[in-house]
Amino acid sequence: MTASTERLPWSLADIDFSAVEAELVRDDDAMFLLVCSASFVETGTDTYTGNLLERFADDGEVGAWLRDHWEPEELQHGRALRAYVQHVWPEFDWEAAYAGFFDEYARLCTMDELEPTCGQEMAARCIVEMGTTTYYQALNAACAEPVLRELTWRIRSDEVRHYKNFHAFFQRYQRAEHLGRRHVLAAIVRRALELRREDASIALRHAAAWHRRSRPRRVSDAAASNEELMARAYRLVSRHLPMELAVRMAIKPLRLSPGVQRFVMRPLAMLGAGIVHP
Questions:
Q1: For residue 12, how far is the Cα from the chain centroid?
Q2: CA geometry: angle at 244 spanning 38 and 1, to 5°?
Q3: What secondary structure letter does DSSP report for 114?
Q4: What is the separation, in whole angstroms, between the first and last Cα of the chain?
Q5: What are phi and psi of 4, to 5 degrees?
Q6: Which range among 178-182, 256-260, 269-273 shows the weakest confidence by mean pLDDT?
Q7: Mind listing the pLDDT tens digit for each residue in 5-27?
Q8: CA nearest 115: which of 55, 176, 205, 49?
Q9: Domains, the chain, ranges and CATH?
Q10: CA dihedral sign of residues 136, 50, 169, 127
Q11: Which phi and psi angles does 277 have, rounded to 5°?
Q12: Burial class (CB in 10 A: 0-12, 13-18, 19+), 112
């Protein structure tokens, strides 16, 4: 479950930013917002990690994995995405925009936001990792720039591995806490409903506001509001979200029988597609 090596699976040195074909993405406002907002959220991981470490203070295995693997990898995602943003959009004031985001985001990172039991929190973590896995897979499918495609796939692969670890921890806690399906489902639904309401929307809002300040004024976008820019970003990522994968990952903690899982897959995927479109 826990990685046996201290080395991260990849490093920034593995990403050749000099090979970025900036002309393929430079004028894509929606892609900018999606990449930039992700860089904000990933960079703020250490704040959230502190809450998880406090919740799981009595579990040395979980604490070691969060501290030595999950947090360093998430923070590396933030550094890599920030480097990409600053390479393609050097006029964008990333630090100032991030400061505004973090001031608002940090107020959400409280112990009260965690689930009532450790097992339910692990189920919620599975939903978060489902969201990031499918988000980066959607970005990978939506973009044409080769370096960004490589970077998003590397991050996506990390998120899949994180999901597997959280799910394994969830199974241990489910047995220890005798969690019934009703309690697991409640945690899953609560976290799923918060996926776009919290950190992602805050990050998009701050990225959009600062992007409008920094970019050269183009006639076609002169009248676009922050809300319209955000709506474009939502539409782009929604078109490419792998909804069946999202549903499979979301319902896995429920341990449904194969027959029930096949029965609910399609309607849940259709429902999810309707929810993610603004």
A1: 19
A2: 65
A3: S
A4: 37
A5: -95, -5
A6: 269-273
A7: 357 899 999 999 999 999 999 99
A8: 55
A9: 22-241 (1.20.1260)
A10: negative
A11: -80, 130
A12: exposed
Pair 277, 251: CB distance under 8 Å: no
Report the C-alpha dihedral over residues 178, 181, 182, 183, rounded to 10 degrees. Answer: 50
Q: Which has more pLDDT, 210 or 263?
A: 210
Phi, psi of 96, deg, nearest 5: -65, -40
CA distance 225 to 231: 10
Rounded Cα–Cα distance for residues 173 and 62 (Å) = 11
Q: What is the pTM of this model?
A: 0.90
- Rounded to 10 deg, the angle between the 71-88 and 146-177 helix axes is 160
Q: How far is CA 45 from the centre of its chain?
A: 11
Both tokens of 63, joined, read 């604490």
Write the pLDDT tens digit of every residue in 159-172.
Answer: 999 999 999 999 99
Q: Name the token pair of 101.
A: 């985001």
User: How confident is the model over 134-146, as a mean pLDDT?
Assistant: 96
Structure tokens at 223: 């009248």
Q: Do 40 and 206 contact (CB within 8 A), yes or no?
A: yes
Q: How far is CA 69 from CA 9, 81, 102, 217, in A?
A: 10, 18, 23, 42
* pLDDT value for 6: 57
Q: What length is written for the chain?
A: 278
* Backbone φ, ψ for residue 49 (5° rounding): -60, -40
Question: Other C-beta atoms within 10 Å of 235: how many?
Answer: 13
Cβ-contact 45, 109 below 8 angstroms: no
The first and second tokens of residue 89, run together, are: 């959009």
